[in-house]
Amino acid sequence: MAAWSDNIRKVEPYVPGEQPRDTDVIKLNTNENPYGPSQRVKNVMMDIDTLRLYPDPTASALVDVLAEYHGVDSSQVFVGVGSDDVLAMSFLTFFNSDKPILFPDITYSFYDVWAELFSIPYERPALDENFRLVKENYYRENGGIVFPNPNAPTGIYEDIKNVEDIVSHNKDSIVIVDEAYIDFGGESALGLIDKYDNLVVVRTFSKSRSMAGLRIGYAISNPVLIKALNDVKYSYNSYTMNRPSLIMGTESVKDDEYFKETVSKVVATRERFVEAIKPLDFTCLPSSANFVFATHKDIPAKEIFQAAKDAHIYVRYFDKPRIDNYLRISIGTDEEMDKFTEFLTNYIQER
Ligand code: PMP
User: Fold this and answer.
1) Which residue among 140, 220, 242, 254 has the highest number of C-beta atoms inside a 10 angstrom radius?
2) CA of 346 to the centre of ligand 1 (A)
3) How far, in Å, CA of 125 to CA of 101, rounded?
4) Which DSSP letter does residue 330 get?
């Protein structure tokens, strides 16, 4: 191998869920929303010729509409190319010490990848036997904290009082609460932003706003931390968000009625689905997200995952300690969930 190979950064990349090219499948593997964006987004008439122009580097229209929506100042909002981008920028910006950052042992697996990529030391306190966060494990010197609430892939929501305890016991480090799924259940940490100067809340348009394809995410915090994020972002890439995303994202925020309606449809389907698979001997962890984490009494999760895939139904399987007998099943339409339930019923009967 030529000497240049030593100069190449070696990384163990994040492995995203499969995006099959075949559209004739039931896709319950990457927590997308089945209902599509608001009609306001569909009505956008974009002058394609304007694509010759760079987008607004400050994304001010989207920032302003999000600030208004959440009742904060525009200086408290940072937007990025999906919450993955916002989180990666947050790791780069806020986790810049020799002390380890902390996140749960079972959580969004991109956190390990960014920590490795950016050479940030990290430790992963174990969740308890019910997959709950043990808040006391975070009351110690550290270089920062990040966790999703609700957690992924478990879907478990951590009471806002516990979130506040973690934030208030860590005044010298920054706490990032990744709220990718909060619209499907639980109380947001946004209400704590004015009270604590070490809190960053991250959100996405990919799940509750049904716009994963546009890649829009944002962070809300105090102006000091948002400026720090922008300083890092502009040092990295001057124009991150594209014009169509900025225009359509802004329209989406303006349609709260549709947003609430589709979120409550997903939640109702989730509750129905959990009940529907109970008689098939599945148990689901209590979910506050747009997916459930389910395990079967007898049949290995990996086997069901493969059989479902063979039947063109995609769910998610993680070959990892403690969760390798669970399937993460995104909530689709009622019809899709009925078809999946029917598949499971037949599979178990014929096995
Ligand atoms: N955080 C969590 C916990 C997630 O599960 C996901 C989805 N993969 C993300 C962040 C990233 O979502 P996006 O980049 O689409 O906003």
Assistant:
1) 220
2) 33
3) 10
4) E
Whether ligand 1 lies within 6 angstroms of the CB of 332 is answered as no
* 117 CA distance to ligand 1 middle (Å): 18
Within this chain, do residues 251 and 287 fall inside the same structural domain, yes or no? no
> What was the pLDDT predicted at 141?
95
Domain containing residue 20: CATH number = 3.90.1150.10
The answer, yes or no, to whether any atom of ligand 1 lies below 6 A from the CB of 158, is no
One domain, residues 203 and 276: no
pLDDT attached to residue 214: 97
Residues 210 and 278 in one domain: no
C-alpha 218/C-alpha 89 separation (Å) is 11
The minimum-distance atom of ligand 1 relative to the CA of 215 is: 15
Q: Which protein residue has the closest C-alpha to ligand 1 atom 8?
A: 30
> Is the model's pLDDT at 220 over the cut of 90?
yes
What pLDDT, in 10s, does the model give residues 237-254? 888 899 999 999 999 999
Helix, strand, coil proportions of the chain in percent (round to 5)?
Answer: 40, 15, 45
Closest C-alpha residue for ligand 1 atom 6:
180
Cα separation, 187 vs 131, in Å, equals 19
- Ligand 1 site, residue 107, Cβ cutoff 6 A: no
Q: Grade residue 162 by pLDDT with cuts at 50, 70 and 90.
A: very high
What pLDDT digit, counting tens, does each position of 336-346 carry? Answer: 999 999 999 99
Mean pLDDT of the chain: 97
Q: How far apart are CA 207 and CA 185, in angstroms?
A: 13
Is 85 found in the same domain as 219? yes
Interface ipTM above 0.95: yes
- CB of 222 sitting under 6 A from ligand 1: no
Look-up of token digits 């129905």: 272
- Number of domains within the chain: 2
Which ligand 1 atom is the nearest neighbour of the CA of 152? 3
Q: Is the CB of 152 under 6 A from ligand 1?
A: yes
